[in-house]
Hints:
This protein is an alpha/beta fold. The protein is built from 13 helices and 15 strands.
Amino acid sequence: MTNIRVAFVGAGYMTTEHIKAFSSLPDVTIAGIFSRSVDRAAALAAPHGAIVASSVDDLYAQTRADLVVVSVPELAMADIARQCFQHPWQVLLEKPAGYNLPDAQAIRDAAHSAGARVHVAFNRRAYSSTRSALAQLSDADGKRFIKVLDQQDQVAARVHHGQPELVAQNYMFANSIHVIDYFRVFGRGSIVAVTPVVPWNAEAPGLVIAKVEFSSGDVGVYEGIWDGPGPWAVSISTPAKRIEMRPLEQGSVQLRDTRAQVPLELSEDDRTYKPGLRYQAEQALAALRGEPANLADIGDSLQSMKLVADIFGIAG
């Protein structure tokens, strides 16, 4: 395909970063933007000669885009996604695709009912650090122990980040999914059991610990610190090597019988663009062409949302 037309819904920070990534690729035209903030949409559209649409329907009518990238607030995602599913473009939804599990299930069902081609932008899967870690693990035999460290602050979400109460209450879906998804990246086989060790207490958020078991024999442990300080970090241990990603955009590998920490190989793209976004854009175009693509689809996204619910003991 040549002259691939890409449209955008939303005009915030993530749309700005997606536009940078997509506009750097050959044969891509930034075709149009729809946002409730017309001024911001116009500012993003102007450098590319893109149109500013008055609605999702108008965006498709004016652009006939091949791909639409949706970056809207969590509580708006379901409605906007359903509108996008009514058109024949491919859809890339920013995560999370739903503010909680029932919302995510409804979005997945709407996509299937419409026969829409839908992917979800888990950009941390696209980090060069993540891809380098997977490459390091490709020749490492034995079971894997995966540890995910999470930190969330509902008070900060409400007070400093202006999150609606419904989003703050479901911040494990809105934000913890960014790191919990790593279990499904590094764990092999299907998830056969999730066992809360220190259960989530919505009335008094604090420490949350859960064990995640895979059909391959791999084991994961989730450790979440709520309303207190802590890092986001992931480690994967095997008999031959241990990989740690902290911060997630970087990482190191330690081989058995040595204390040396060798940095993971990182791509120049992750220094030039928001990490993962240019590679993710390339994968979205590959999917559009019908080629194999390293990109989560809407069903894959729902499985990660279900894992969040199981870790926190939240019924669907």
